[in-house]
Amino acid sequence: MKKFFAMLCAGVMALSMAACSSSGDKYIIATDTAFPPFEFTDVDGDGQFKGIDVDIVDAIAQDQGFEYEFDSIGFDAALAAVQSGQADGVIAGMSITDERKETFDFSDPYYTADVTMAVAKGSGISSYEELAGKTVAVKTGTNGADYAKSIADQYGFSIVEFKDSPTMYQDVIAGNTAACFEDYPVMAYNIKNGAGLEIPEGMTAAGSDYGFAVKKGENAELLEAFQQGLANIKANGKYQEIIDKYTK
Ligand code: GLN
Question: Distance, CA 242 to ligand 1 centroid (Å)?
Fold first, then answer.
C-alpha cells in the first residue's frame, strides 16, 4: 500500500512538472464559449472546438512558430483573464472600441460585424417601439449590451444580462425576454442552424471591427507575431480559406 502511494506521488509530481514546463512556453489565448462561427464546439460534427478565431490563431501560430492553448471561458471572463494576467491574449469576436483601447492593445481588424436585434420566431416583434415595457436579453460586457443600454430609456425597456449567447437565446425563445442583441454574423449562423429566433428587417445597427487583443503594454511580442502572421495568411490565401470554410 505504501509503495502504491509513493508511486502515485511520483507520478503526480512528474505530471505536474510536465504541466508546468509546457504551460511556461505556451501562450494562453482566452476566448468565448459558444460564439459560432468564431468559436464553438461542433457538437453536430466532430465534437471539436473550432471556428474562424480558432483556425486563425492556429494558422498564425504555425506561420510564426509559437505554441498556444485556448482557454474557452466566456466573453467577459476572457477579457478579465487578460487584464489579470491569467491569459496572454484574447480572440473572441472582440470588437475594437475606444474604451477597450484604454486597457487593451489590439491587432489590425480581421473581421467586421454589425449588431442586430433578434426575436423569437413568430413573435411578430419588429421594432424597438414594441419593446416598451418589456425586458430585453444581452450578454455581459458586449457591444450588444452597450447598444441595448444606450437605447433602453428611449424605448422604455429593461435589460437582463446573461453570461453566454446560448442562454441568452433560450431566454428569448422561452418568452421571458422580448428580444436580444447579438453580433449579426453570429445570430445569422445560429438561425441558419435552427435557433428558434429571427431578425426583424432593418434591425441591424452600427458595425465594429474585430481584433485580437493583449493587455495594454504587455505581451508585445505575441501581438507582433499575430500582426505578422495575419498579414501572411491574408497574403497566402489561408485567411480567406478559413472565412469561406465557416461562412459558405
Ligand atoms: N463583438 C462583441 C463585443 O466585442 C461581442 C463579442 C462576443 O460576444 N464574443 O462586444
Answer: 20
